Amino acid sequence: MRAVVVTAKGGPDVLTVTDMDEPDSGPGDITVAVAAAAVNPVDLKTRSGFLPIELTYPAVLGWDVSGTVVAVGASVTRFAPGDNVIGMIAQPAHRFGTYAERVVADESLFAHAPTGTSLVHAAAIPLAALTAVQLLDKITLPAQSTVLVTGAAGAVGRTASALLLIRGHRVDALARESDVDDLLALGSRRVFTEPADLQAGVYDAVVDTAGVVDTIDSVHDDGAYVSIEDGDQPEPQRGITPGKSYVNEDGPGLEQIAALVSAGALSIPIAREFGFAEAPQAHSLLAAGGTRGKVLLIP
Predict the structure, then answer these.
(1) Please, which residues have CB within 8 angstroms of residue 241's CB and are 6 or more apart in sequence?
(2) Bridge-partner residues for 192, per DSSP?
(3) If DSSP codes are grouped into helix, strand and coil, which group holds residue 287?
């Protein structure tokens, strides 16, 4: 099978396309013919060596995948050949990620693909949506809470905002000026473009997807602050204990997310699609910042 591999840490140019053997399949595994894989910040950080992860080379990056089941192991019960699926694979734990024509992994990491979106575009869903769900699971919010979401125009921030609105909370956003109209249309009450414009002590919680640690000042005493960013976190203060959320593989959780996508309650836009041979360009685009929507790799 063709795959995008890295054989050393470095810049986008270390990404190359090669032919390699399909990974071995176990009794609980499904084999998926890949429709698309998404490019995520964790891929860039793994490739560059920013994250302290020891890879076994050649390594195939990628966490997000959509595709069609072509084979199932003897103990698989949830899927059959021909099923369209989405999945999130924590690549460093498995060596082989999703930048490949075939993905082989345990059925517990997958869900049936949602309806109402193309199978290719469904690859944008798993990591961003699971990150948002698990981020919100870290905090307890009273009914009709008022929440600030930083990085609200990014895939995780956009999904977290949508989930908060579905749950009946009031959402304000911190984002770029160019994103204001879009976020207001999605349901945010107000969109701030500068942290300095935020009022102190007014929010029940801050959901930080952009590493804007000073926004903890806008949380009232005994409120909540939770982040997904890798940088320094704010110190505990005023009864607020900042939390950090790491995403975990969760096929059953993806089934619930897929149901929301099928119902039209959630969507993640697509910024660009690239072929496997263009993987360096895809990484460079995401690294440049300002991308709105997910970047996809197509076999």
Answers:
(1) none
(2) 174
(3) helix
Write out pLDDT tens, residues 227-248: 998 778 888 999 999 988 999 9
Q: Detail the DSSP E strand segments found in 142-235.
A: 146-150, 170-174, 191-192, 203-208, 219-227
pTM for this entry: 0.92
d(CA 216, CA 135): 16
Provide the sign of the torsion angle of the four alpha carbons 280, 286, 274, 58, taken in this order. positive
Q: Which residue has tokens 């995401």?
A: 286
Tokens of 237: 């203060």
pLDDT digits (tens, 9 = 90+) for 88-116: 999 888 878 999 999 999 999 999 999 98
Q: Among 140, 215, 146, 133, which residue's Cα sits nearest to residue 175?
A: 215
- The span from the CA of 238 to the CA of 250, in Å, is 34
> What CA–CA distance (Å, rounded) separates 161 from 3?
35
Q: Tell me which amino acid residue 125 is.
A: I
Number of helices and strands in the chain (H, E): 6, 16
